[in-house]
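User: Need the bound-state model for copper (II) ion:
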Amino acid sequence: MIRRTALDDGRIRWRAGRLAGPGILLGATLIAIATTFTACALDPGFRSDSSVFAPKDPPAFDTPLPIPPLADSEVVDGVRVFSLTAGEGQSEFVDGVTTPTWGFNGDFLGPTLRAQRGEKVAVKVTNELDETTTVHWHGMHLPAAMDGGPHQPIEAGGTWRPQWRIDQPAATLWYHPHPHGATEEHVMRGLAGMFILDDERSGASGLPSQYGVDDIPLIVQDKRLDSEGEFDLDSEGNEIGLLGDMVLVNGVWGAALDVTTELVRLRILNGSSARTYDFGLDDGRDFALVGTDGGLLEQPVSTDHVRLSPGERAEIVVAMAPGTETMLRSLPPDLGQVAAPFAFGANDEFDVLLLRAADTLQPSPPLPARFTEIERYTEADADNTRTFEVQDREINGLRMDMNRIDEVMQVDSTELWSITNRDLFPHNWHVHDVQFQVLDIDGAPPPAELNGWKDTIYLEPRREYRIMMRFEDYVDDENPYMIHCHLLLHEDEGLMSQFVVSEDRPNRNVEQGDSVGGHEH
Ligand code: C2O
Ligand code: CU
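Assistant: Bound-state model below.
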């Protein structure tokens, strides 16, 4: 049910609780609508067209956009070695206000790691925090023991040195902590960075590719400060977690990018805890969507908006005319049939980053018509099928248990999964180790923006998403990979399960409500 609580300061908080059974859908929606009006009547300051923490406009969009530095690396015995140190620092997001922050190799966020397909890489991670953390390589295909999930803790003062070979197409990946139960806090405090992969095709793609010049990483995160200037990490009872009222790009609220080329490529990462964005340009014009989570699309897709839920990435190319400005905005995202759209940010619309073109622009080569080929999986390729029902903080009725393996994938097999969000509030779905393809949504082919490689997808309530993926290597019966909702509060509260890749036959989970445990260890 929808519960409303007045906070001490008179603000209203919202909680769309667990709603069981489809019959309740209409009722819940009516309650939500009715409650919106009641709230307006009760609290004159409440904006019915936006959430309680709808983003405010920054004082001005005039701070030059900082570009995370490319991480240094050293090649030792054929391995490219990076170093990341997680530690505390401080930042100034609002003039004159000091905010304690965490960062890798600095005060906030981390450098961009970059490597080429086929290279062996290692990362020497040092934890200078006062507590255990981990570093997970989101979107990376790698052995489970190197994955940096909850089973690879790095204690305070400790180090960890994972090593693997880059074996996947060029893509915009990222890294962030994944300690079970504390991921939201660690990411919100500032531990996140990009990991860009290149390959021969991407090098020859003709896409803008000068890092920091016409190829720009954008880490987008909403934050909220308390009266002391510290991060407010309390989600105020919001079912989906923390929605901030300040939207930072690469750590700056109100940033402007000086564009010097006719085409500029933006690698957008939604590094937020709960907020889903719908990125577009303020003049409503089209841009080219060229890549999604796991790499380039086969061809550019012309569109005027792209929705990104937490953890998802999109690469877009924007054409600029000399001497003009355009604002990258977030439009009200379509979250599907959620019970309380205003509470989940569905009505929020705000500016994100000003693009300012110089009076003379360097010519850019025209956008190529084709980037790559993606071999499509078909239903007939599936060796095994699984069904996942997401509800509240559970997958198929179970919360995360570090000591339980939920699913066993057989190596060298293709899987078809059906995933449904049974709640009336947002969830999404992230799979470690592999990139997947969306086969269909409620039986219909996916839209163009979901037609490439994905590792995270938004789950609109009550719709069936069927995805396909292959497990080809890295057999390990002991170390699991994770599947989870990337709304970090949900993940922390247990909306996560574990799988291993094994030589064994797969377990099957089609009997709903049954224990899905493969084997205990
Ligand atoms: Cu971005 Cu399991 O994580
Ligand atoms: Cu969720």
